[in-house]
Description:
The chain is built from 6 helices and no strands. By secondary structure, it is mostly helical. The chain has one domain.
Amino acid sequence: MLWTPELAQYLEDAPWPATKGELIDYCERIGAPPAVVKNLQEIEDEEEQFESIEEIWPDYSAEADEFYYDDELNEY
């Protein structure tokens, strides 16, 4: 699985808690990129309930992403 902040953002508003199948269904309904669905399909446990994106991708931090480009914008 290769997650990026851009891909993971499609799961921010997902109906948590959710199973792998529910997340895949959600992503297909909202038109998420195929890479998001592919990453979810690689999850091994079909029945596990995930409470948030952090349980799927522990390195994800929605708050940190908001400030990711702040330094670059201030340089111009």
